[in-house]
Write a structure and sequence with these properties.
Length: 243
C-alpha cells in the first residue's frame, strides 16, 4: 500500500497539479492540511483534493480560519489578508468541507496532525519541540506539516536524544522497528526551506519507507494569478525564493 503525502498546498494550483502528476501510481492520499490560504486558487485546490481517490485529510489552521473556525488573531497581517480574501472565494459546500475536517487521524501505527501533538496548531522546528511531540505520541510514526520545511525527527534504538534530519532536496526515511519518527513532507504551495520546488512524499507501508521528493512547477504563472487577485506582494515574491 502506498500513500501520497501532500501538505500545505495553500491555494497553489500549479504546484498541486505538478505534484499530483508525480503521484499517479499511489493508491491512497494523506493530506496534512492547509489546502487554502496564500494562493490564488483556493476553491480549485479544495475541489481537486477532495476528489482524490482514497483520501484521508486533516485540517490546517488556514483551512479552519478561512471558514471562521480558527481565530484570525493567530495570524500575521499578510496571512490574515490572504485568509480573508480566500474566505470570499469558497462556496458554502467548500466551506463546510473544510470546516468538517478532523484535527487528527490515526492510520494504523501512524497519526496525522497538521502541527504537533498534543497541540495540533503548534510548530515543530526544534529538537525540544519534537521531543514534546514524541512524549505525546502513542504509536511510532507521526506525519506533520505546518512549518513548510521538509525534514524528519527520529528517536529510539540506543539514541537517547532525538535527531533532526533535513529533506530540502528530497530523501529517504527508513522506518526501523525500534525507532519512532516525526516526518514532515514539506509544503506543496509555499516551501520555506530554501528550495522553491514543490515538496511531497510517498509512504510505502510494506517496505517501511517514506520518500520525499521535489518537483518544479510554473512559479511565474502562480505568481501572476496572485498578483491579478490583489494578494500581498511579499507572499508572491517568496514563492520564487522558497523562503
Ligand atoms: Zn501552511
Amino acid at each position: 500500500m502506498t500513500y501520497g503525502l501532500i501538505s500545505d498546498i495553500h491555494g497553489n494550483l500549479e504546484a498541486l497539479e505538478a505534484v499530483l502528476s508525480e503521484l499517479e501510481s499511489v493508491e491512497r492520499f494523506l493530506c496534512l492540511g492547509d489546502i487554502v490560504g496564500y494562493g490564488a486558487d483556493p476553491a480549485a485546490c479544495v475541489e481537486r483534493v477532495r476528489q482524490l481517490p482514497n483520501l484521508t485529510c486533516i485540517a490546517g489552521n488556514h483551512d479552519l480560519a478561512a471558514v471562521g473556525r480558527y481565530d484570525l488573531n493567530w495570524f500575521n497581517p499578510l496571512a490574515r489578508i490572504a485568509i480573508e480574501w480566500t474566505s470570499q472565494q469558497l462556496t458554502p459546500d467548500e466551506r463546510s468541507y473544510l470546516g468538517s475536517l478532523p484535527l487528527t487521524v490515526e492510520l494504523g501505527e501512524a497519526i496525522a496532525v497538521h502541527g504537533s501533538l498534543p497541540e495540533p496548531m503548534e510548530y515543530i522546528t526544534t529538537l525540544q519541540e519534537a521531543r514534546q511531540c514524541f512524549d505525546a505520541m502513542s504509536g511510532s510514526l507521526v506525519f506533520v506539516g505546518h512549518t513548510h520545511v521538509a525534514e524528519y525527527y527520529r528517536v529510539g534504538g540506543d539514541k537517547r536524544l532525538p535527531e533532526q534530519v533535513p529533506l530540502f532536496s528530497g530523501g529517504r526515511v527508513s522506518l526501523e522497528a525500534e525507532m519512532r519518527h516525526i516526518i514532515n513532507p514539506g509544503a506543496i504551495g509555499q516551501p520555506r526551506d530554501g528550495n522553491p520546488q514543490a515538496s511531497f512524499g510517498v509512504w510505502n507501508l510494506e517496505a517501511g519507507i517514506v520518500q520525499t521528493r521535489r518537483v518544479s512547477y510554473d512559479i511565474a504563472r502562480a505568481q501572476d494569478k496572485m498578483r491579478r487577485s490583489g494578494l500581498p506582494e511579499y507572499l508572491i515574491a517568496r514563492l520564487a525564493q522558497g523562503r
